Amino acid sequence: MKAIVIHETGGPEVMRLEDVPTPEPKAGNVRGKIEAIGLNFIDIYHRSGQYKLPLPTTIGQEAAGVVDAVGDGVTEFKVGDKVAYAFTLGSYAEYSVVPADKLVHVPANLSTDLAAALMLQGMTAHFLATDTFAIKPGHTVLVHAAAGGTGQLLVQIAKMRGGRVLATCSTSKAGIAKAAGADEVLAYEGFDEAVKQHTDGKGVDAVYDSVGKDTFDRSLNCLKPRGIMVLFGQASGAVAPIDPQVLNAKGALFLTRPSLGHYVRTREELLGRANDVLGWAAEGKLKVGIDRVFALADVGQAHAALASRSTQGKVVLRP
After folding, report:
1. Residues 80, 84, 87, 89, CA torsion sign
2. Cα separations in angstroms, 123 against 34, 87, 97, 229, 275
3. DSSP conformational letter for 253
4. Looking at residue 47, what DSSP letter applies?
5. DSSP symbol at 241
6. Which fold is adopted by the domain 136-257?
7. DSSP 233
8. How far apart are the first and last CA of the chain?
9. Boundaries of CATH 3.90.180.10 in the chain?
10. Which of 8, 207, 213, 274 could form a disulfide with 219 if both were Cys (CB 3.0 to 4.6 A apart)?
11. Which parts of the chain are beta strand (E)?
């Protein structure tokens, strides 16, 4: 089969399309013929060496396709089933072998492109809005980077749960955040003062911040007493260490740094989140935008597009 293989870390040029043996599923595993691969920033970190992996390797952690073969003991899936997965390395390929407990069924009327685009970002938006801070009617939240892939989904789920959403994004992308359902779209410059104006000086119940260094301190200023700061990314760089007394002085605030892996620790959690997100998309309740689709051989261009932050939706590869 064809797969992207990395022999050394570096720029997009280190990703090479090569012929490699087609893997065989062992007991408890499923082999899928991949139809769509979702790109994520962690792929860039793996390729560049920012996050270390043994080499040579095939990167990618998210894909959708059709079951091609099943290993011994697998009863939940059969050949021909439409499936998707996340959290298993090696999706930049024509076939991948995945533990059956990492796979989920994809609704018949949902494309594999959309399924691949939703697994990581969709389930992340899901746990942020339902568990890290359970948004309910009457809550007001601030979502940074609301025009990004996860941001758009988070805005939509927050609105589905009855919340009021204030959003930040670059001025050129304000229409995207508004289309996702944001009640107010704010510029990054002076956003903390704008939040106070839009909440009559009270502040918001929660801030969802994937930007990091450039927004963190001002995000704390946006919270009402006992509000929660949800830092789930660092697109602008790592946040400096914080004195816990700052949280006290600003209103006995809560601070958390969650990641999806801690919110899909069981099969039941994974299925609950994936079935919600994929089901909502299949019903038209949750919109996911695919910005560009690249052939697997053009993975270097796909990484460049993602790294440029010029995309306005998910980037997908097709073998």
Report:
1. positive
2. 20, 12, 21, 19, 10
3. -
4. H
5. P
6. Rossmann fold (3.40.50)
7. -
8. 10
9. 2-119+264-318
10. 207
11. 2-6, 15-19, 29-38, 62-70, 82-86, 95-99, 103-105, 140-143, 164-168, 184-186, 204-209, 223-231, 254-256, 290-295, 314-318
Whether residue 56 is preceded by a cis peptide bond, meaning omega within 30 degrees of 0, is yes
- Please give the full DSSP string across 116-139, using - where no structure is assigned: HHHHHHHHHHHHIIIIIS---TT-
Average pLDDT by stretches of 10, the chain with 319 residues: 98 97 98 97 92 96 98 98 96 98 97 97 97 98 94 97 97 94 97 98 97 96 98 90 97 97 96 98 95 96 88 90
Element (H, E) at 239: none
How much is the pLDDT for 312?
77
Distance between CA atoms of 75 and 27, rounded to whole angstroms? 11
Residues of the chain within CATH 3.40.50.720 domain(s) are: 136-257
Assigned CATH class of 2-119+264-318: alpha beta
The two three-digit tokens of residue 18, written as one number: 């090569």
And the tokens for 64? 């959708």
> In the structure encoding, which two tokens stand for residue 160, read together?
């589905």
Instruction: Compute the distance between CA of residue 319 and CA of residue 298 in angstroms, rounded to an integer.
Output: 10
Q: How far apart are CA 313 and CA 290, in angstroms?
A: 5
